[in-house]
Design goal:
hydrolase; zinc; alpha/beta; 8-stranded mixed β-sheet; 2 domains; Purple Acid Phosphatase, chain A, domain 2; Metallophosphoesterase_PAP; binds 2-acetamido-2-deoxy-beta-D-glucopyranose; Metallo-depent_PP-like; globular; 28% helix; 6-stranded mixed β-sheet
Length: 347
């Protein structure tokens, strides 16, 4: 059989389709030729997208999270400043860390909230770029498949949302991870909310496969920068604090694979925490609209910056340097960090 192995899941066919555009099929066929068999794990790749860099090989983008409120709670003000900074940095794309539509995601592909909270809010010229979105827990309270549907791309061509995927941008590779299904309490104690778990059950298999896929994608990555994006926190001093399940299950994989940055939302604040155990920098950008002023969980070891108001962050990457800047609702620079690759590689 030229196409190797077989699993019983529906997602296999999707993965084969994804592989058509990615590397998995070629690898698979090469392996088949050389060894006469192919590991199923090579098929279990996350869907991949390509993002070109600037002419000089650098890359810049913005990260915003926890935003869709039809412009209220300063969402429009944050959007305005994103537009200005986006223009200044000549950004390549925008990343959303999830909780795209409050309070309960989208009701369907025809939910007017999509245009009211996205299309008509992020109107600046510089924001007319590709948006790479993940899902947050609030998105799971609506029709998740609507947010994942290609129909939205017809309404607004910037939109791209998948549960988990890989974005290859030459000097950097981004690993978008669907973190909501990790969190036990949404299953055991949903507090009256209904979550749309279609496509996630059986949960145990979903999580096992996801962790395997992320580990494999990270291990195979040869990019200078490995950046993981998820909705939930790993390290946070905000309202929700650390996410226990993700610290236990995902963080060890990120540490083993020398991930540089973990970028999340969920806590409605901006923060930067560094780790004692690894070079991973933990960045929260969850200030896209309603912020929880004063709601600090605890003071964290390694905390470099915490701001419990609205805002977003920008990132400029070259082969050797990452410059990350946090901004408030007025576009004022709040905190800046530089990460240099040469430092780590000389260690
Ligand atoms: C690369 O080009 C962009 C303009 O597209 C510029 O903003 C940036 O500063 C340049 N970066 C380097 C490292 O030269
Ligand atoms: C909007 O931002 C300003 C400045 O940070 C803040 O004082 C105000 O409370 C914010 N409004 C809301 C509704 O969050
Ligand atoms: C970060 O690096 C940039 C150049 O890439 C430099 O202009 C800036 O001063 C540095 N910032 C810090 C805080 O070291």
């Amino acid at each position: 059989m030229p196409i190797c192995g077989a699993t019983n899941s529906l997602s296999l066919s999707l993965r084969i389709m994804a592989g058509f555009y990615g590397r998995s099929m070629t690898q698979c066929l090469m392996l088949t030729t050389s060894f006469g068999l192919c590991l199923i794990s090579t098929l279990a790749e996350l869907q991949r997208f390509e993002q070109p860099v600037k002419a000089n090989g650098s890359l810049s983008f913005l990260v915003v999270g926890d935003w869709g409120r039809r412009g209220t709670y300063n969402q429009s003000e944050v959007a305005l400043q994103m537009g200005k900074i986006g223009e200044k940095l000549d950004i390549n794309f925008i990343v959303s860390t999830g909780d795209n539509f409050y309070d309960n995601g989208l009701t369907g592909v025809d939910d007017p909230a999509f245009e009211e909270s996205f299309t008509r809010i992020y109107t600046a010229q510089s924001l007319q770029k590709q948006w790479y979105n993940v899902l947050g827990n609030h998105d799971y309270r609506g029709d998740v498949e609507a947010q994942l549907s290609p129909v939205l791309k017809k309404i607004d061509s910037r939109w791209l949302c998948l549960r988990s995927f890989v974005l290859n941008a030459e000097i950097a590779e981004f690993f978008f991870v669907d973190t909501t299904p990790f969190v036990d309490k949404y299953f055991s104690d949903p507090e009256g909310h209904t979550y749309d778990w279609r496509g996630v059950s059986p949960r145990k298999d979903y999580l096992t496969n996801l962790l395997k896929d992320v580990d494999l994608a990270l291990r195979e990555s040869i990019a200078k920068w490995k950046i993981v994006v998820g909705h939930h926190t790993i390290r946070s001093a905000g309202h929700h604090g650390d996410t226990k399940e993700i610290v236990e299950q995902l963080l060890p994989i990120l540490e083993t694979n020398n991930v540089d940055l973990y970028v999340n939302g969920h806590d409605h604040c901006l923060e930067h925490i560094s780790s004692n155990h690894s070079p991973i920098q933990f960045l929260t950008s969850g200030g896209g609209s309603k912020a929880w002023r004063g709601d600090i969980d605890e003071l964290k070891q390694g905390m470099k910056f915490f701001y419990d108001g609205q805002g977003f962050l920008s990132m400029q990457l070259t082969h050797t340097d990452a410059e990350i800047v946090f901004y408030d609702v007025f576009g004022k620079l709040l905190h800046k960090l530089n990460v240099s690759k040469q430092l780590y590689s000389s260690m």
